[in-house]
Design a protein that fits this description.
Elements: E1 2-6, E2 11-15, E3 20-26, E4 29-35, E5 41-46, H1 48-58
Antiparallel strand pairs: 1-2, 3-4, 4-5
This protein binds zinc ion (ZN).
The site of zinc ion (ZN) has 8 residues, from loops.
């Protein structure tokens, strides 16, 4: 689930996995194609840098006692 600004709705909407119709790997990351609540086809680029940062913060660093 992620949020997206739909130009047709002119609002931020929540998009659920069941609305996603396609995932395309691009040079900039993964582009999701989905159908908004209003029925319009939308795309959103998922930023891979964000998930890398999340993974990095989850990594445990040994602390010298
Ligand atoms: Zn919409």
């Amino acid at each position: 689930m992620f949020d997206h600004h739909c130009p047709t709705c002119a609002a931020r909407v929540l998009v659920f996995p069941s609305q996603v119709s396609a995932m395309t790997h691009t040079e900039d990351g993964i582009e999701l194609s989905f159908t908004c609540w209003c029925g319009s086809e939308q795309t959103q680029l998922m930023n891979p840098a964000r998930s890398e940062a999340r993974g990095g913060s989850r990594r445990r660093t040994p602390v010298a006692a």
